[in-house]
Design goal:
alpha+beta; 2 domains; 6-stranded mixed beta barrel; 10 strands; 16% strand
């Protein structure tokens, strides 16, 4: 009889203990699997979100993340010079700020995320997806004193009950410590999907000059960052290097470099939580499996001594116990995968319901490396758990054990 079959029969001889052990390991394995998904889930999700914008290089005036440093002066000219580089396809300056709008029937004003961009020179490369109406670059330049155009997201359109063609009054405050500015009137020309929108976040977008008017800024040609799309034949790294050579005073980050900084600075909290909980989980799994196997060996001392007397070697006994541990942990590990997937979906929904979290961002994201690491950690747990029971079985005195059984 092979060691695998022998180990399986030893487990099914006591189904209650085996089932409880498998369920316990499944619970431990599910939590371990979720912690592995959490350790890099937000980074993977954010990478996918940034890739879908179509831009793979970000140019800023500071290396601080998130944004909060000085503005990029002469943003339109800077973006034009960057776009003229051989390695660059498109460059779009962008502003991020805050604004408020009145809500019919309510005294309090609704807070908004305010985006300013200069997409006219690069139609189709705006960083958002038009759902209804017209984009900013499709609207002809307004005459002096005319009502400027603006884009809104679907959440704001539904909340206010407005559509393209309606008016929207904004009051802006785009810098810390700046007083709220006078109300300015806009005309909604389209509804768009913004990459970093949250389910409860309301976003509007206008041109850089209109952004400066709402925020009460004298210089309408400043930007928080410049979004850059590199050419396919050169790549993001070459584009970022070329931009650094053209503007050494600015900081250029590829998507990979930006995510690496986020992972080392901004996402250490999730990684540390995942590491701590995964370590605790593995310790519980080790103790549980070791306890089950040790109890099984203690109850089978006579059986093991008899097998040794019949010719089973220490190596064969050790192999049988190792396979018993492997079958126990393997069955629990397989059951842990669907259990962990369901638990991850539930926890992810709870975290994503927090205010300000974009709908396309997930905290628990499956990666093949997470599955490989999960299998490797459970395999190591199975091997380590079998060490003490194997030592007990290997050191068991055959004659004394059989004599004690006969006498008793």
């Amino acid at each position: 009889m092979s060691s695998v079959v022998f180990a399986w029969r030893c487990l099914v001889r006591q189904p209650g203990r085996a089932v409880l052990g498998i369920l316990g390991i499944a619970a431990v394995g599910a939590l371990l699997f979720d912690m592995l998904l959490l350790s890099r889930g937000l980074v993977v999700s954010l990478e996918d979100l940034l890739d879908r914008t179509g831009f793979d290089v970000r140019v800023m005036s500071t290396d601080g993340i998130p944004l909060g440093g000085p503005m990029i002066p002469d943003a339109v000219a800077t973006a034009t010079a960057i776009a003229d580089l051989r390695e660059v396809d498109v460059a779009v300056p962008l502003r991020l700020g805050r604004a408020r709008t009145a809500v019919p029937g309510r005294r309090r004003q609704l807070p908004l995320t305010f985006v300013g961009a200069a997409p006219a020179a690069h139609p189709g490369w705006t960083g958002w997806h038009l759902v209804e109406g017209r984009d900013l670059h499709e609207v002809e330049a307004m005459a002096a004193g005319g009502v400027p155009p603006i884009l809104i997201n679907g959440a704001l359109a539904s909340w206010l009950g407005i559509a393209p063609g309606a008016g929207l009054a904004l009051r802006g405050s785009c810098a810390v410590g700046r007083y709220w500015m006078p109300v300015l009137d806009f005309r909604v020309v389209g509804i768009a999907e913004f990459p970093l929108d949250g389910a409860s976040r309301f976003t509007v977008a206008a041109s850089l000059s209109d952004f400066a008017r709402v925020c009460g800024e004298e210089d309408p040609d400043e930007a928080d960052l410049v979004l850059v799309a590199s050419r396919l034949d050169t790549g993001a790294a070459a584009a970022a290097e070329a931009i650094r050579g053209l503007y050494p005073q600015l900081y250029s980050f590829t998507t990979e470099e930006l995510l690496d900084r986020f992972e080392r600075v901004g996402f250490t909290y999730f990684r540390q939580i995942a590491v701590v909980l995964a370590t605790i989980t593995l310790c519980f799994g080790f103790l549980l499996t070791t306890t089950i196997l040790t109890v099984a060996v203690n109850q089978r001392f006579v059986e093991i001594a008899a097998l040794r007397a019949l010719g089973f070697s220490r190596r064969r006994i050790a192999t049988d116990l190792l396979w018993e541990s492997g079958v126990l942990v393997g069955a629990g590990g397989l059951l842990a995968l669907p259990l962990g997937a369901g638990l991850a979906a539930w926890l992810d929904a709870i975290l994503r319901s927090m205010p300000g979290v974009p709908p396309n961002v997930h905290f628990f994201v499956f990666e093949p490396r997470a599955l490989v690491l999960h299998v490797a950690l459970l395999g190591a747990t199975a091997v380590c758990s079998a060490l003490y029971p194997v030592w007990l079985a290997a050191c068991l005195p055959i004659a004394a054990t059989l004599r004690d059984e006969v006498v008793s």
